[in-house]
Design a protein that fits this description.
Helix content is 93%, strand content 0%. It has 89 residues and is mostly helical. The N and C termini lie far apart (75 Å).
């Protein structure tokens, strides 16, 4: 169920609750409002989680880039050391 469908169903539920007698309406309205609040909280939590995952992905890309650069530098320095070692013989 997507966001639009959820909101539509919740509004339908609230409309139906409003047709009930006042004595039955209170507890159901409270449950519907609590459901709405929990849904909003869950949306925020999922958004925060998505943001954290995006940051993690970016961090991993930087770490992989750094690792590749370090490997290239190590290879270059090993070749320099080998050349210096061969020149001394």
């Amino acid at each position: 169920m997507n966001e639009h469908d959820f909101q539509k169903k919740l509004n339908e539920l609230l409309t139906q609750i409003n047709t009930l007698p006042e004595s039955e309406r209170g507890p159901l309205e409270a449950l519907a409002q609590e459901t709405k609040a929990r849904h909003e909280s869950m949306k925020k939590t999922i958004g925060d989680l998505q943001e954290s995952l995006d940051y993690l992905r970016l961090s991993i890309k930087y770490l992989v880039f750094d690792l590749e650069a370090t490997r290239r530098e190590n290879e270059y320095l090993r070749k320099l050391i080998e050349k210096q070692g061969q020149g001394e013989e």
